[in-house]
Each structure stands twice: as structure tokens, then as C-alpha cells.
Amino acid sequence: MPAIRKRVGPRGSGFWSSFDPNDNRLVAEALKEEFQRSEPAHDIHYAHSGPDRIPPNALNLKINFHCLHDCLIFLLRGVIFIEEQGAIIEPGYVYVVKDEEWIGLGGNTSLFVMEEGEMKGICAS
């Protein structure tokens, strides 16, 4: 079974509520600083879904990166679905993800994927 753990950065989950989810470059730079990442900010991968008027995962929207086998997923807003785990609905946290094939996205979701371990450099930009 895949392992999911939640981590909070030094400034807390509320720090992220003021960020514009459409300014992914600024959020990636802040993530790099908050979680002391060594990779360039452009190597932090951004994914998002459409408007929130659509029921959660009605479009069956999924992301499938190779690095989902060992990564950190930062949920800026919205909801993500992980097989056998259900919905993750708390934004402002980093989720440690291991051995996943895909992540489902709810409506109006913005997330960032940071590669870990042997998966660094594996995801397509």
C-alpha cells in the first residue's frame, strides 16, 4: 500500500493562502525556500485542474508522473485523490508520496510535485 504522510513547513499551512495560484513561478520559488530544496524552481512541477463547478474528479482527471514513486506533493488548493487513500483536502501542506502510479485532481486544484531520492530528474518538465 502506498505511503502518504503530511508535513508542514516552518511558516505553517496558513502562510500559503495569500498566494495567487496562477503565479506558479512565485509559488515554486517560495516552496524551494520553505522546504530547503536544492533543485532550481523550474524543476518543481506544477499541475492544475479546471473550475470548481465540476464535481470532484467527474472528469477523471489524473496526473501520471514517474516520480510519483518517490516525491513530495504540495497542495496549494483543491483536492487530490490517491488510490486506496481517498481524498486529501487540506491545502498548505506537503504530502510525502511513495509508490503511486497516478494522482486524481478535483476541480480547481493546484499542486506542485517535488522529486525525491532516486526519482530526482525523472519527471518530464
In spatial order, strands of the major sheet run 1-7-4-9-2
Shape: globular
Helix-residue proportion: under 10%
The H/E string reads: EHEEEEEEEE
Give the termini distance in whole angstroms.
27 Å
Tell me about the largest β-sheet: 5 strands, antiparallel
Radius of gyration: 13 Å
Number of helices: 1
DSSP summary, beta strand count: 9
What integer is the average pLDDT?
83
Structural class: mainly beta
* Poorly predicted parts: none
Note the beta-strand portion: 25-35%
Written account of the structure:
The protein has a five-stranded antiparallel sheet with strand order 1-7-4-9-2, covered by helices on one side. It has a four-stranded antiparallel sheet with strand order 3-8-5-6, with no helix packed on it. A hairpin with a 3-residue loop joins strand 5 and strand 6. The protein contains one helix and nine strands; from the N terminus they run E-H-E-E-E-E-E-E-E-E. The model has no long low-confidence stretch (mean pLDDT 83). The protein has one helix spanning 24-34; strands spanning 3-7, 45-48, 62-63, 70-77, 80-82, 86-88, 93-98, 103-105, 110-115. The chain is mainly beta.
Features of this protein?
globular; 5-stranded antiparallel beta sheet; mainly beta; 1 helix; 4-stranded antiparallel beta sheet; 125 residues
List the helices and strands and how they pair.
Elements: E1 3-7, H1 24-34, E2 45-48, E3 62-63, E4 70-77, E5 80-82, E6 86-88, E7 93-98, E8 103-105, E9 110-115
Antiparallel strand pairs: 1-7, 2-9, 3-8, 4-7, 4-9, 5-6, 5-8
